[in-house]
């Protein structure tokens, strides 16, 4: 989020400007790159309407101003309009982050009158074949219909397309589709390798040539279309030599509440061992944000190791992503190995080298995000 | 970019919402998944961009409110930048 500051030192965090309410892990889609935890099927005890309202009130009092309704598919919750109305009443800017499945004329109107400010609709591709393959559903035509509905009701609309090896060569058609649907913003988000995407990494990571072409095409479109639609291109961090400033720093501006009330500094952090993430059923948002050991674990710089500890760039990227450091090095406090200065950088470059082959060797077949797979993966 | 006329009537684009944030002690501009914190002068100008007030009136109003003169070039510069960033448009 532009214009936000990170806290000066541990114990004195700024406000959680961004509240992401993951209302449910239920989802009619089965995307191969889903960022939900692999064991999502084990989470069944969703927060009630009243519990969500309390979370929203308390976070707003702390200074939260952007409110995202996400999931899973947030439209699976029957109380969505009631939650939007509460968020609007509290003065949030309310964002619905949806696959589009479950949005019809009546519901679109109902959410508008509840005060919903913006809808982000995801597409998996510009073609029916690839969209429907990556989500393992027949949803492409429905998504087109929903996107038109969103614009017809006067919402600002962001189209989000997660890019991977399997769709990135369609980038020109994806941009054309977004223009035709009159999106206000197009987010071309290269896959981040967490959750299900990490499991499917060998199938999803594009080659350098694919990325360079996509960036070139995006630049050409930007020059041609000017202000008509803003295009964000999220660079795949595996191809960078410095890590992303993940979440603008741990516990800095972002507060994620999982469907069962577990409070997290990001969607992926739940997998980190040794941290006890607090639950909103047992603690206040203020207590969670300000005082909980989990939210303070990687604030400030005390936790850093070399090469981050003495690095002049540590105030810019905060050592990158703790989850990525854990997944690739086994230790969350290590430098994010995306960084060329990390002693573990080869863990990234090895994967990148494999992705340059025409048909990269995969350790397992592609796995779709399904309840049955969630149980199998977790049993191991 | 063309010079902004004194008769032009700027307004916030529908993508944006402006509000006072008590915890930040600041006016902010909110848009899909984002926020811009506004400094004092920027907020004073944007608050007056209602789609019916002409730039000339807006400047006169600011000069009266802040007992100042010669704000024309500052306001002009800000509105040009605000239009470039897509925050405002001009009523037809």
Describe the structure.
- The complex is a heterodimer of chains A (380) and B (92).
- Chain A has 380 residues and is of the alpha/beta class.
- In chain A, 36% of the residues lie in helices and 12% in strands.
- Chain A has 15 helices and nine strands.
- Chain A has a nine-stranded mixed beta sheet, with helices on one face.
- The radius of gyration of chain A is 20 Å and the shape is globular.
- The two termini of chain A are 38 Å apart.
- Mean pLDDT of chain A is 93; it is low at 1-10.
- Chain B is globular, with a radius of gyration of 13 Å.
- Classes of the chains: A alpha/beta (380), B alpha+beta (92).
- Chain A binds chain B through residues 1-4, 15, 17, 62-63, 65-66, 68, 91, 93, 95, 117-118, 120, 154, 156, 158, 184-185, 227, 230, and chain B through 14-15, 17, 19, 21, 23-24, 28, 30-37, 86.
Uncertain ranges of chain B: none
Biggest sheet of chain B, open or closed, and with what strands and sense?
A: 3 strands, antiparallel
Radius of gyration computed on alpha carbons of chain B: 13 Å
Structure class of chain B:
alpha+beta
Largest interface: A-B, 24 and 17 residues
Shape of chain B: globular
Helix content of chain A: 25-40%
Strand arrangement within the widest β-sheet of chain A reads 7-6-5-4-3-2-1-8-9
Count of DSSP helices of chain B? 3
Helical stretch tally of chain A? 15
Quick structural summary:
The complex is a heterodimer of chains A (380) and B (92). With 380 residues, chain A is α/β, with parallel strands linked by helices. Chain A has helices spanning 49-62, 80-90, 105-114, 128-135, 140-152, 171-180, 195-199, 201-204, 208-225, 285-291, 293-296, 314-317, 322-329, 346-355, 371-379; strands spanning 18-22, 66-70, 93-98, 118-123, 157-163, 185-190, 230-234, 254-257, 263-264.
Labels describing this entry:
heterodimer; A: 380 residues; 9-stranded mixed sheet; 12% strand; B: 92 residues; alpha+beta; 3-stranded antiparallel sheet; 5 strands
């Amino acid at each position: 989020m532009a214009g936000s500051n990170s806290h000066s030192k541990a114990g004195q965090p700024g406000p959680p400007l961004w509240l992401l309410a993951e209302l449910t892990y239920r989802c009619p889609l089965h995307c191969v790159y889903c960022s939900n935890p692999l064991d999502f099927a084990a989470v069944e005890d969703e927060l009630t309407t009243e519990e969500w309202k309390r979370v929203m009130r308390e976070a707003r009092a702390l200074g939260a101003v952007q409110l995202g309704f996400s999931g899973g598919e947030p439209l699976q919750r029957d109380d969505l309009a009631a939650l939007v109305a509460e968020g609007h009443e509290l003065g949030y800017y309310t964002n619905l982050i949806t696959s589009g499945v479950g949005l019809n004329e009546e519901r679109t109107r109902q959410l508008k009158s509840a005060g919903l400010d913006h809808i982000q609709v995801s597409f998996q591709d510009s073609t029916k074949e690839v969209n429907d393959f990556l989500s393992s559903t027949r949803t492409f035509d429905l998504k087109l219909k929903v996107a038109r509905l969103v614009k017809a009701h006067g919402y600002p609309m962001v189209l989000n397309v997660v890019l991977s090896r399997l769709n990135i060569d369609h980038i020109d058609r994806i941009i054309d589709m977004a223009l035709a649907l009159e999106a206000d913003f197009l987010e071309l988000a290269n896959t981040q390798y967490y959750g299900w995407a990490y499991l499917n990494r060998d199938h999803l990571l594009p080659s350098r040539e694919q990325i360079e072409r996509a960036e070139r095409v995006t630049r050409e479109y930007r020059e041609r279309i000017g202000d008509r639609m803003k295009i964000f291109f999220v660079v795949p961090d595996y191809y960078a030599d410095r890590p992303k400033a993940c979440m603008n720093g741990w516990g800095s501006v972002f507060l994620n509440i999982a469907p069962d009330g577990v409070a997290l500094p990001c969607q992926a952090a739940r997998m980190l061992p040794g941290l006890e993430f607090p639950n909103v059923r047992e603690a206040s948002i203020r207590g969670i944000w300000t005082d909980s050991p989990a939210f303070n674990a990687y604030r400030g710089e005390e936790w850093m190791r070399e090469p981050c500890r003495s690095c002049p760039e540590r105030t810019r990227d905060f050592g990158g992503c703790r989850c990525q450091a854990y997944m690739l090095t086994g230790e969350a406090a290590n430098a994010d190995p995306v960084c060329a200065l990390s002693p573990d950088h080869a863990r990234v470059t090895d994967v990148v080298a494999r992705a340059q082959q025409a048909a990269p060797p995969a350790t397992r077949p592609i796995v779709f995000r399904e309840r049955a797979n969630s149980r199998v993966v977790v049993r191991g | 970019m063309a010079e902004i006329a004194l008769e032009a009537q700027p307004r916030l684009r529908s993508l944006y919402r402006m509000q006072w944030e008590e915890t930040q002690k600041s006016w902010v501009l909110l848009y899909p998944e984002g926020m811009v914190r506004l400094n004092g002068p920027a907020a004073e100008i944007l608050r007056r961009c209602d789609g019916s007030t002409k730039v000339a009136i807006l400047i006169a109003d600011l000069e009266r409110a802040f007992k100042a003169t010669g704000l024309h070039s500052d306001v002009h510069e800000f509105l040009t930048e605000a239009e470039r960033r897509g925050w405002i448009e001009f009523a037809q």
